[in-house]
């Protein structure tokens, strides 16, 4: 019998919330812990981070440092930076994860699926033909084919300042 192990998902599936306050604000305020927090890049009041509870390997989030509930809470300069970062992440996922496609989006409010409410962020997810199967539907289980460390190592070179 084969076993699937994803112990890093335990706090998420059990609803545990060890941090006080907004986890995205905490990560944003700790640049000295970027590697530990899987932050790949910081630019213009934003950071790019691997989702610690990914739907698929390479699942990125683009997060403003400033706590804002929605896009309307960002100014025009921040919105410009945000879309530049979407493009940078798209290029990084294409090259670093060798993906065949991508999903992207955001969730405002718990009823819309937001796991972290009140701090706007964009998700970008690399996709491959055949990366989904019956496991999610029948087994209520997601199969992540690479560790967070592996995804970080594959993507980090594409976020160096000299790479565009």
Characterization of the model:
The chain is α+β, with helices and mostly antiparallel strands and 164 residues long. It has one domain (19-159): HIT family, subunit A (2-Layer Sandwich). The protein has helices at residues 10-14, 23-28, 34-37, 76-97, 134-139, 148-155, and strands at 39-43, 46-50, 60-64, 101-105, 122-127. Strand 1 (39-43) and strand 2 form a beta hairpin. The longest helix has 22 residues, at 76-97.
Secondary structure elements and pairings:
Elements: H1 10-14, H2 23-28, H3 34-37, E1 39-43, E2 46-50, E3 60-64, H4 76-97, E4 101-105, E5 122-127, H5 134-139, H6 148-155
Antiparallel strand pairs: 1-2, 2-3, 3-5, 4-5
Strand order of the largest sheet: 1-2-3-5-4
The total beta strand count reads 5
The level of helicity is 25-40%
Biggest sheet descriptor = 5 strands, antiparallel
Oligomer: single chain
Shape: globular
Q: Mean pLDDT, nearest integer? A: 85
The CATH superfamily appears as: HIT-like
Structural domain count: 1
Classify the beta-strand content into a percent band.
15-25%
Q: What is the rounded distance between the termini?
A: 45 Å
Unreliably modeled segments: none
Query: What structural category do the secondary elements indicate?
Result: alpha+beta
Give helix and strand order, one letter per element, not per position.
HHHEEEHEEHH
Number of helical segments with 4 or more residues: 6
CATH fold-type name: HIT family, subunit A
Q: What is the CATH C-level name? A: Alpha Beta
